[in-house]
Design brief:
Order of helices and strands: EEEEEEEEEEEEEHEEEEEEEEEEE
Largest sheet: 4 strands, antiparallel
Structural class: mainly beta
Shape: globular
Helix content: under 10%
Strand order of the largest sheet: 3-4-5-6
Length: 325
């Protein structure tokens, strides 16, 4: 039996790819999709747009397009998943959708971006308005292996293990918290700028929330910075201007294998457990309560099931599990 792609939830811009703009309360199969579902390699969602990558390196997009975030060279919303033909010469490896922009990593390690650049989130300082087709971020000279998009900032992990950040989305909160102290350059940069404080580690993956950033090192440790309004950074500070390591005892001293971020909560996977913490008003931490979790907690309801894939939305979490027999 061939796999099917299902979509549900908010749909006011056609971001579900179902051909209309009505919200969908129960998962509905996409019947009119121009790529084969068995070819789908990843799924990503932003403020009001969605993106699917295929195993052959194509990018399909739909939804909100007022700022050109779909990369289709126009600003009309798109109701069905549509091939981004501007990328026909590239093999797309990963896509990250922000609020009103899109970051695209291609096989050669280059990064392209499209959409709104009002906060410098495209990493293209030469563009003041909208970018309607994906453009290469020229100042990224090193090969990139992983990208992430927050509300109005973006991250890239390079082949050598350093992290670059751009977009000023976190700057106003940083200024309020800093009480006049100078901010690190990467919090106000409009093109890729190295994140200070990660010199002694090698980062392999990045994640981003609305106003925070996360790095996962090759040794399985997490470093976090940005807003801690909901306890998502496991700190007593309201804002962390530089990366801080989350103590390994928070994860039963297990190495972190992968990390995901919603707008204000995080989920991490170790060899044996799934942990979650941060904003929990809608129960997305999975601990049976709606109280914010200021320290990582095991998602006990998943038991001993092996999590194959995990995903986070603004205020929800998902896990594809395999239960041992």
């Amino acid at each position: 039996m061939e796999p099917e792609l299902f979509a549900w939830g908010a749909n006011s811009y056609g971001q579900l790819g179902l051909g209309h703009k009505e919200d969908v309360l129960v998962p509905q199969a996409l019947t009119d999709i121009s790529c084969k579902c068995q070819d789908v390699a990843s799924i990503s969602g932003g403020g009001g747009h969605s993106a699917v990558t295929t195993g052959t390196g194509q990018l399909f997009v739909c939804g909100h397009n007022k700022d050109g975030q779909l990369g289709l060279n126009h600003t009309e919303d798109v109701l069905h998943f549509t091939l981004c033909t501007a990328l026909s010469g590239f093999c797309v490896k990963q896509v990250a959708c922000g609020w009103d922009f899109t970051i695209i990593l291609v096989g050669s390690g280059l990064v392209l971006s499209c959409g709104s650049n009002s906060f410098g989130q495209l990493g293209l300082p030469q563009i003041s308005g909208l970018c309607l087709i994906p453009r290469k971020i020229e100042s990224l000279k090193e090969k990139v292996v992983n990208v992430a998009a927050g509300l109005r900032h973006a991250l890239a992990a390079t082949d050598s293990g350093s992290v670059l950040q751009w977009g000023t989305g976190m700057a106003s909160r940083a200024k309020r918290a800093s009480q006049g102290k100078a901010l690190p350059l990467f919090l106000t940069a409009k093109e890729p700028c190295e994140v200070a404080g990660l010199d002694d580690v090698k980062v392999k993956a990045v994640a981003a929330g609305s106003y925070h950033s996360v790095s996962l090192t090759d040794e399985g440790h997490l470093y976090v910075w940005g807003s801690n309004k909901h306890g998502q950074l496991v700190s007593r500070d309201i804002f962390l201007a530089e990366p801080k390591k989350i103590d390994t005892h928070c994860f039963s001293h297990e190495k972190i294998g992968a990390v995901w971020s919603g707008w204000t909560h995080l989920v991490a996977q170790t060899g044996g457990q799934c942990f979650s913490w941060g904003w929990n008003e809608h129960g997305m931490c999975g601990d049976g309560t709606e109280a914010n979790a200021h320290v990582p907690k095991p998602v006990k309801a998943l038991g001993s099931a092996k999590q194959i894939l995990i995903g986070c939305g603004a205020g929800h979490s998902m896990a594809l599990c395999q239960t041992p027999h």
